[in-house]
Every structure is written in structure tokens, then in C-alpha cells.
Amino acid sequence: MIIVTGGAGFIGSCLVAALCARGLDIVVVDRLRDGEKWRNLRRHIPVRIVAPEDLETLLNDDTVKAEAVFHMGAISTTTARDGDLVWRTNVSLSERLWSWCAQQGVRFFYASSAATYGAADEPSLFSDDPALLSSLEPLNLYGWSKQAFDLNVMRSLERGIARPPQWAGLKFFNVYGPNEYHKGNMISVVKVKYDEVRQGHPARLFRSDRADIADGQQKRDFIWVGDVVKVMLWLYDNQTVNGLFNCGTGEARTYLDLANAVCDAAGVKRAVEYVDMPDSLRGQYQSFTQADMSRLRAAGYTASFTSLEDGVHQYVRDHLSKADPYL
Prior knowledge:
globular, alpha/beta, 34% helix, 13 strands
């Protein structure tokens, strides 16, 4: 049995689909609420769905014999303001799961974030070397909470406190793909631009808030969710690999590249319109991200990553253009 927190969410449900395809029993810890989120699990039904408030009961159940925990659940909104809630959810809960996995001999994999890199704006600053971890300065509460847990993991290891038999954290960069439709204003730029161009509008991009970066030339490391799942499965299959790793493609692409890829995949003429960046994002907006993937490669991961054009095309062809866009 494998426990997946946030298993009805975007990345979590795509992981659940892959684990179910292997014939594994999955317990999802998440809330479905009253929207369409249940559709993320419609074709990949877990053996059990546990509400987050009932997680402690699950962990205290002696009959629960889990092989691994994939901790994908979090408050992932970059504009979150409730610091107490974010700490309880993103840090305290993660620490509880780490301790439980250590006590029970259960492998532990968790989601960190590229938001921990803050205002880093050149490739050399996106190293996932643990020795550099304390120097990072996240720009928002969400990134800070992910940084806090990463640091607490490292402190625990340094002090020789009991650890899970295998552990790995993944700093996800800009992930896009199916099953993200419930995410509201945190949905990927690919999905937002697709909706705009299919409605006959140009793809709208934020004007740059930096004098040294032209409009549309802000760059991010966009990664197809299928590649993210492959990395997690590789870690699951390679039990001797431990560590905190970046999870991106290793290549920064411009927002203009993305908008053009969406237009091409949707079969419409390329057209872009620039709009002012909201005040809520000014000073908190990452104008450049690019994962340094050298440590994951050194650990033995050899698979290639999907190009932005191929990933966008696959997303549009197999999901967004369909009446049923779910995985």
C-alpha cells in the first residue's frame, strides 16, 4: 500500500494514475469537496480516500502497513497570506509524516518547490546542493514554508535523528498538464493561454516589471507533468537514492515561446497581447527559473525531458481539445 497525500490534486492524481497502472493499492489523503476534483480519480480509483483531518487516525492504525508515502499535499497558492495555516499544513504536517515514516520504516517522498529560489535570476543560482540551501531567500510565504521544511530535513539528518529508510524531496519547477483544472488562479499558464486563444483572443502575457527584461522574455523552466511522474517513479524504483533534487527540464524558455507553442498546438495564428502585472505579484514574481539537474543526473537519472513544444502539443491534443480532458 502507498499513501499519497494531495492524491486528488494535480500532480498527486497523475502519480496515482501511474501507481494504479502498476497494480498498487493507493490510499489518497485529500478533500474532494463539491466541485469536479473527483474526476481526477475517476479512472484511477484508490482503495481508500482519507480526509486530511483524519490522517492522524490513519497513522495511528496498527493495521496500516504502508510501503511508501508520497507527500504531495500542501497549500500551494503563492499569494497565500495566512502564515499560521501555511506553517501547519506545509511544515508541521510534513514533519509529522517524516517522523512517522522514520518510526515505521516507510519510504518518504515529498514535494518541495522552485519557489524556494526566490529572486535568483541566473542559472548558477538554481543549484540544489544542500550546502547552499540556507542561502536561499524565497519571495513569498509558500516558498518560505517549503524552504523551512527542506532546512528542517537537513538539520534532522545532521543531528543523526531517525530518518525514513529512503527519502527524497523534489523541487518542482513550472509543471503543466492534465488534471490541473480545479486549481483556480494557480492553474498553469499553458491552460490559461489555451482558453484565451480558443475563445478568439490573443494570448495575454504580463509586461515585464524589470527594466532589463523585455516583455515576453521572462523565462521559466516549464516541465510536463508526465516527466515529473517519471522522476518520482524512478526514485521509488531506486531505493538507494536519497536527497533533495530539482525537478525541471534544465532549460529556461520564454513566456513568448510558450504562447507561440500554445497557438501552434491549437491551430490558430500566433498573437500576443501584453497586460500590466497585478500589484499583488510585483516584487514576488520570478522572472527567471532554470533547474540545475546535475545532481539528479549524477544520482543516475538518465531519461530525457519533454520539450516545451512537444509537451504543449501533447497536452492540447490528448486533453485540452477533448470533451473529457482528464487523465
